[in-house]
């Protein structure tokens, strides 16, 4: 496992990360405080006034949460 991509994100953070991968016109409202926490982890960034997923955030999202692996197993 790559420890660099292992994050113990909250459910709200996972949902926000999934939401900001969508184009701005298609996404639902995302909690600003949650987005700020993703920005602090370098998983999201601000482009203009809109949050966007970073390449690191996309890798984390694709890899998924180890907690979610337990549920799926």
**Tally of domains:** 1
Tell me the overall shape: globular
Number of strands: 2
Give the radius of gyration: 12 Å
Average pLDDT number: 82
What's the total helix number?
A: 4
Query: Roughly what percent helix?
Result: 40-55%
Q: Strand sequence of the main sheet, in spatial order? A: 1-2
Class inferred from helices and paired strands? mainly alpha
| The CATH top-level class label | Mainly Alpha
Characterize the main sheet: 2 strands, antiparallel
CATH architecture: Orthogonal Bundle
The CA-CA distance between the termini, in Å, is 18 Å
Order of helices and strands: HHEEHH
What this model shows, in words?
The chain is mainly alpha-helical. It has a single domain, classed as Orthogonal Bundle (Arc Repressor Mutant, subunit A). 48% of the residues lie in helices and 11% in strands. It contains four helices and two strands, in the order ααββαα. The chain has helices spanning 11-20, 32-40, 55-63, 66-72; strands at 44-47, 50-53. It has a two-stranded antiparallel sheet with strand order 1-2. α1 (11-20) crosses α2 (32-40). 21% of the residues are buried. The mean pLDDT is 82.
């Amino acid at each position: 496992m790559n420890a660099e991509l292992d994050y113990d994100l909250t459910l709200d953070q996972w949902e926000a990360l999934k939401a900001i991968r969508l184009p701005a016109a298609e996404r639902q409202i995302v909690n600003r405080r949650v987005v700020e926490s993703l920005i602090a982890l370098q998983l999201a960034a601000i482009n203009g006034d809109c949050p966007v997923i970073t390449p690191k955030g996309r890798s984390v999202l694709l890899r998924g949460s180890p907690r979610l692996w337990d549920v799926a197993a």
